[in-house]
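New to this. Comment on this protein:
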Amino acid sequence: MQNRIRAEREERGWTQAGLAEQLDVSRQTVVALETGRYDPSLPLAFRIAAVFGKRIEELFTPAAKPASRR
């Protein structure tokens, strides 16, 4: 899954630690979210959207599917 978390955070001048505190997660979780190594649970995705004042669909998009082989 791709996301806009880093871009949204940087636009606001927030640190990873500051965002983590607002979300009640560790800074390492924010790093993992931003790098795409971790997809958030649905409750966390809603918290992220609320913190940024966005809809989930504005922050997260499915990764492109690889072309199927025949």
